[in-house]
Amino acid sequence: MSECPVAGHGGRSPHLGGQSGAISRRALFGAGAAAGVGAAAAIGTDLALGGQGGDDATLTAAGTELNGTRTIAFHGEHQAGIEMVPQAFENLVALSLFQGTTKDQLQRLLRILSDDAARMTQGRYALADSEPEFAATPARLTITFGFGPDLVAIARGPEGVPSWLAPLPAFSIDRLEPRWNGGDLLLQVASDDPTTVAHVTRMLLKDTRSFAGVNWFQHGFRSAHGSQPEGTTARNLLGQVDGTVNPVPGSADFDRVVWRDDTTGPADEDWLVGGTTMVVRRIEMLLDKWDRLDRTGREETVGRRLDDGAPLTGTNEHDDPDFDATTPVGFPVIAEFSHIRRARGDAKGDSKLQMFRRGYNYELGPTDIAVSDAGHIFTAFQADLMTQFVPMQQRLADLDLLNEWTSPIGSAVFAIPPGAPEGGFVGQTLFD
Predict the structure, then answer these.
(1) CATH top-level class for 3-77+87-227+425-431?
(2) Distance from the CA of 233 to the CA of which of 14, 213, 357, 365 falls in 20 to 30 A?
(3) Annotated catalytic residue within 242, 268, 308, 346
(4) pLDDT confidence tier of residue 367, bands split at 50, 70 and 90
(5) Reported confidence tier of residue 369, pLDDT bands at 50, 70, 90
(6) What whole-number percentage of the chain has pLDDT above 90?
(7) Cβ–Cβ contacts within 10 Å for residue 242, how many?
């Protein structure tokens, strides 16, 4: 995926902009369903602002590029928002399609969403945006779409829904709440600017309101852009360095672990080639209880030092843990119940039980009985859900001391289709 500064606020792509783009968009919505005055106002503002911004808008007083002007390509073989350094802020929105939604209506919705996503990720506003000024700061904005089983069934029939595209098996540690489960259409909106995330989410929901309602909404955050050196592993709210063992974006290992090819699944799942599978788990962290555990206990629970993330048998974060090392009295240095050991598949690490984790923290604030109501939005991408994610999750459910301080309260599974080609839309392979 390429990154580049916005070339000018009023710039227009050849296939999305201009008066003809507005007419096409009205046709997609159908007579009377377009935003009407809002769309007209946006077009008028487009003409008024055309040429505004320019090269000067991308530079600070010192002449350096502003992060707010950086863009990530929307079109391509894979959807953006996966193979990259995660942005600082993210909204996840799961939508439920209205009963009776037809195949034609679904296709029209996906075209509309892709149209607006292609514009906004490049620093250009949605056609019906009455606050176009927000578009000037994409700040590495990505918009990623995921499909649930009911959406796939509308496009391909019930027999076309993959068997794995369903609720995960029940795990003993689950304390799932219905308000955080499932969904037909997932919107993953991420950027280094929280205002951009909020506005873009609003624009996409304006697109969907004639087709679907909100099933659940989750907002997540990581360290702010520039607060730490690039490449620093993020911390979760337990204080744990989280994500040390993760495939590196751009590597052959990442391709193997994440992206589906024509050998990953059966022939009737060829619409997913170039895509992946996604799991969303909302993990409640019992921080008030965690506060009562001393630092030694915390490190033994995780299997890593909390200050730098190094395994208890190593000196640096990325040192390989020595699971055979013992204490002077013969106990394992890295306990059998530690998170790091359980997350490795077996004592030496099982290369098949891998995934790409893209986690975010969430925080809802104190309550009348607790200082913290917070946790982790765990998202994982993997080519084969049943052979990669499910066995690993079962290992963690069976024996992971960290389960004493964490509890899954939400769970959802989505198919992530391949990226949209120029002039196309996300999910068009479903209709081929």
Answers:
(1) alpha beta
(2) 365
(3) 242
(4) confident
(5) confident
(6) 78
(7) 22
Distance, CA of 111 to CA of 3 (rounded, Å): 24
Give how far Cα 42 sits from Cα of 25, 47, 387, Å: 13, 9, 48
Q: What is the pLDDT of residues 233-284, one digit of tens each?
A: 999 999 999 989 999 999 999 999 999 999 888 989 999 999 999 999 999 9
Calpha distance 274→422 (Å, rounded): 16
pLDDT at 183 over 90: yes
Q: Is this structure's pTM higher than 0.90? A: no
Is the Cβ–Cβ distance between 400 and 339 less than 8 Å?
yes
Rounded to 5°, angle at Cα 201 from 196 and 206: 130
Q: What is the 3-state secondary structure (H, E, C) of the chain?
A: CCEEECCCCCCCCCCCCHHHHHHHHHHHHCCCCCCCHHHHHHHHHHHHHCCCCCHHHHECCCCCECHHHEEECCCCCCCCCCCCCCCCEEEEEEEEECCCCCHHHHHHHHHHHHHHHHHHCCCCCCCCCCCHHHHHCCCCCEEEEEECHHHHHHHHCHHHCCCCCCCCCCCCCCCCCHHHCCCCEEEEEEECCHHHHHHHHHHHHHHHCCCEEEEEEEEEECCCCCCCCCCCCCECCCCCECCCCCCCCCCHHHHHHHCCCCCCCCHHHHHHCCCEEEEEEEEEECHHHHCCCCHHHHHHHHCECCCCCCECCCCCCCCCCCCCCECCCCCECCCCCCHHHHCCCCCCCCCCCCCEECCEEEECCCCCCCCCCEEEEEEEEECCHHHHHHHHHHHHHHCCHHHHCEEEEEEEEEEECCCCCCCCCCCHHHHC
Task: Look at residue 210 and tell me whether its pLDDT is greater than 80.
Answer: yes
The pair of structure tokens assigned to 227 is: 């607060």
User: What is the mean pLDDT of the segment spanning 396-405?
Assistant: 95
Dihedral sign, Cα of residue 116, residue 121, residue 124, residue 128 = positive
